[in-house]
Amino acid sequence: MKNKITLVLIMIIVFISELKSQSFDEILKTIESNNQDIQAAQKLLESKIYEYKNMILPEGPEFSYGYFPDNSSNIGSKETFEISQSFQMPCFYRNQSSLSKLLTEQERISYQHFRQTVLAEAKKLLIESIYLTKMSYLLQTRLADAESLLQAYTKRLETGDVNLLEVNKSKLYLLHIQNQVKTVQTELNSIQKQLIYYNGGQELNFDLAEYPQILEINADEITIEKQNNDPELLYASKQIESSAKMVKVTRNLQLPKFSMGYAGETVADEKFRGVVIGLSVPLWSGNSAVKKAKFESQYLELSSLSMQTKIETETKAQIDKIQSLKKNLDNYSQTLSSVNNIELLKKSLELGEISSIEYFTEISYFYQIYDDYLISEKEYQLAVCEMLQFKL
Questions:
Q1: CATH of the domain at 232
Q2: pTM for this structure?
């Protein structure tokens, strides 16, 4: 039994040593390149950039032509034509150009936030995959142990060294481990299928056995860094700037609008040609439009303050959670590294100091503690991933 377990452990160690070649960053770069949602968001960003570029251009020239056949006693028909170009005040184009740049920056930030969200979800799946892979390795070892134990007890039953109750307990223990192996493998297959979706439908061949290294987290530094770089806060800030600029643009639209052009009229053999100048004054809707823009600007300012408070509160809660998980993780690690109950239990069982029922009870308790350690390790990684999403 010992030789079989040792062989499994050696295979696991060799396999893990070969898996350390790939990094999280490399896998996430592959996903970013292949993810169809990110590709679609890139195309949307490009279309928005061109849309906002068109905002600073004046309206196209207008051309009209009229033909009026002779329907009177006078001989000859009448023809008219006019081509003209309308213009806003220069201040309108200046403010409209600034608004166009702000809206473009907004779209870039929105794309960045979407991209980071997709990559964060993919990274969480990778973390889940590592957790399940670690569980799979452990369960394979436990499975080999349970199979060897059942074989040994079956032989000892024939000699009368153990009773049927102990053999049945060994069978139930083996069944429990087998079901755990199947459950973990099913979950691992599900994670892999989800990662294929995030990789644009392509198989994602990766070998990760260890979580990414996490440097010490400074709460004050992270809070400041998030305030300066979090895309949700940056987007809200740009919205305030854009809305303030929109108020100016709306005011500019209430100024007179000019048009200049060239027109002509032909009646019979007489031709008339000349310059046309027009003026349009928005008398009726100007005041309401400016008030609407002002209220929208005030709404966005208040929303931005609410967003900032929300992000700050969430960040503090995330930091508290991470620190708590790290403390639990360190406690688990320190205790488990100094306790080797498995070997002691096996030795006690072999020497007959404890019954099989006592063995299964005690080893199940130890396994549960170690499983809790792996869950805490995973939750710690997931919490850090969520808090540092803005860095992806």
A1: 1.20.1600.10
A2: 0.83
